[in-house]
Amino acid sequence: MSKPDQELITECLGGQTQAFGDLVLRYQNRLFNTLISVLGSVEDARDVAQEAFVQAFQKLHLFRGQSAFYSWLFRIALNSAVSLKRKRHRVPVSIEACREESGIEPTDRHPETRPEHALETNETQDAVRAALGELAEEQRTVLVLKEMENLSYEEIAEIVGCPIGTVRSRIHRARSELRDRLQDILQEPDA
Question: What is the pTM of this model?
């Protein structure tokens, strides 16, 4: 049975640094996958996740346990992501280039369905991914945390460092913008 986060943190602070390795194993995939959605790049997500774990290890003595360890870790990762973007001053690129860079390709999860389903699914996923990529970073981040990570408004507010009302507002605006951008795709075809 795996140990609770706080017990692993206490062990690590007590000199058993291998306990931090257990925390890394527990959260590395979740953090990496969320960062891909936030950053839109596998390489950037890998770099930021690695940097976040290094910083978390170095600052573990500052963790007060007032929030979940993952929330604290993700806040560190988000700060690293912002720093990375500032350093690179990246210019926007085409959706196709983003897909090539991120290495993420839509997949058909229901191959037993009608033949055109895969094409429709891919088109929808591409459209959603493109629309998500066009959102302002602060809107995209909170929406990914809410919809893909299933975090509470309180956890998101803590991670992004703003009031809950601001988080709710950003999520509402992000959903509204996505809905507007995807209106043609989301409409059911005439029967």
Answer: 0.60
